[in-house]
Amino acid sequence: MDLGPDARASSPLAIFLRFLRFGLQAWGGPIPQIAMMHRELVEKEQWIDEATFRRVLAVYQAIPGPEANELAVYFGYRRGGRLGGLLAGLGFLLPGLLLCLVVATLYVHHGSSLPGIDGLLYAVKPVVIALILHALIRLARNAFTNDALAHVGIAAGLLAGLAELNFVFTLLGLGLLYYVARRASRPALGLAPLGLVSLALPTLPTLLVLFLFFLQVGLFTFGGAYTAISLIQEGAVARFGWITNQQFLDALALSSLLPAPLVIAGTFVGYIAFGLPGALLATLGIYLPAFAFTLLAHEPLSRLVEDPRTHDFFDGVTAAVIGIIAVTLVHLTPPAFPDALSLVLGVAAFAALRMFHVNVALVVLSAAALGVALDLVGVV
Questions:
Q1: Whole-angstrom Cα distance, residue 253 to residue 357?
Q2: Which end of the chain has fewer CB atoms within 10 angstroms, the N or the C?
């Protein structure tokens, strides 16, 4: 890729600091994060033109991984080559990662002794359920473009919820099945080794299992952070038993307060399960594909996504993801609503998101403040 004289003139330090600032402002999920980069780097400074931005965004929305972080890596790559891409991605990730480690440490070592923490978790957990439900409805509307894809989603939910089939086999199998049904030809996607890795996980050392599991999560987060949440819950809670469902919900609630993609909850889960080494390996596993896809394989991936022969496979996987998210929602909902007040909070959050289109960060932070206040006055 031709970086151009302007791009080559940018120093690595300048790129890192620029995206570190973006990372410090990365509240509210991928939409405001992407809008922030678009406003500054496309509209104001014209690092790339609008048509290129839309094409690149479409690629990162079609492949796995947190698309805001992938875009940060891409912009850094355009400005300063592979080193620029690496530093841009690290800068965007670093604030959320460091804050997550601090919060996870406080949660594990001090827990309910922190002032207001019980109220904060009480109020934010129903909001997390509202966020997932809101995202599920939006994703389902985009994914279920025909009856067959809706059936794929239902099948994925049944396989995940009743048969408890590993998500790698569920997503690969249903994606390939839909591909074959639509194309009636032999798929050549080269993803079978991931299934073999998944089968071998229980026989490997624990921290290596943790890393490989989160690497699989990073490779299958079609549809964004809410997919990752579902895959982490399926593995860390149901399959391996590293943490409890209640701890996982706490991790989601606290991670939602941070300026980072919600997949940072994987870092939180890794810390709860295995301390700092677990947190760092979980982070590496989830984010490694996002960096590698952009720095090493952007052009081939662009061609792959634009190739109509692959669309059916991606459509099938995305539809299957919806079923898995729905099962996760079923598992997480009961502990998030212990009483009528929590139900009111969840309904209010859903209405704010769905009907009034309130910013996600504002909804979450408002719930956190309310929860702390309720705790301090002894209501919860």
A1: 20
A2: N
- In terms of domains, do 144 and 179 share one? yes
User: Do 69 and 164 fall within a single domain?
Assistant: no
Looking at the structure, tell me whether residues 147 and 208 fall in a common domain.
Answer: yes
Residue given tokens 């800068």 in the structure block: 91
With a cut of 70, say whether residue 2 has pLDDT above it: no
What CA–CA distance (Å, rounded) separates 314 from 40?
Answer: 31
Provide CB contacts within 8 A for 204, sequence distance 6+.
Answer: 212
Q: How far apart are CA 378 and CA 172, in angstroms?
A: 49
Assess whether 137 and 249 both reside in one domain.
Answer: yes
Give CA–CA dist 56/302, Å, rounded.
Answer: 8
Question: Looking at residue 3, what is its pLDDT?
Answer: 46
Q: What is the pLDDT of residues 180-235, one digit of tens each?
A: 888 755 444 444 455 555 555 665 678 999 999 999 999 988 877 888 999 999 99
DSSP H or E segment with residue 339: none
79 and 98 share one domain: no
Give 25-39 pLDDT, tens digit per residue: 998 888 899 999 999
Q: Is 79 in the same domain as 152?
A: no
Helix (H) or strand (E) holding 150: helix 147-161
> Which pTM value belongs to this model?
0.89
What is the domain range of residue 14?
A: 4-93
In this structure, the answer to whether residues 172 and 231 fall within a common structural domain is yes
Give the whole-angstrom CA distance, residue 16 versus residue 187.
40
pLDDT band at 45 (very low <50, low <70, confident <90, very high): very high
pLDDT confidence band for 250 (50 / 70 / 90) = very high
Same domain, 107 and 40: no
Q: Give, in degrees to the nearest 5, the angle at Cα 230 between 225 and 236.
A: 115
d(CA 95, CA 92): 7
What is the C-alpha R_g of the chain? 20
CA-wise closest residue to 154 among 236, 245, 162, 130: 162
